[in-house]
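User: I'm writing a tutorial on reading structure tokens. Could you give me a worked example: one chain, its sequence, then its tokens, then a sentence or two explaining what the tokens reveal?
Assistant: Sure. Here is the example chain.
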Amino acid sequence: MTDSNTPDPNASNVPPPPAPPAQPAPSYGATPSYSAPPAQKTNVLAIVSLVSSFFISLVGIITGHIALSQIKKTGEQGRGLAIAGLIIGYVGLVLGIIFAIVWFAIIGAAISSGSVTTY
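And here are its predicted structure tokens:
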């Protein structure tokens, strides 16, 4: 019978190896801590203003003014886009008005001279 205070001759005096450190579970979708700060958002209406001013000047002018108001309140990016949309929209509107005046003047002159017959 062995005494509980006496060591077992078959046991070794080597301590067990340390357990490996626990790895944290991967967090998918989380941004690493070394990433750059997020870029500031561009106002969507400023982009709409610039694009639409090439096709429908009045839409570019309206959305440009709304975008400038929103940018002033929120501090978003896109002020230059909104201003460019306004400038292109106003230039397009003025050119459209001039074209319409010239077109109606030419049609009116042609009708009054008798070169165009109306039924």
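What the tokens reveal: The helical segments are 44-53, 57-74, 79-113. The radius of gyration is 38 Å.
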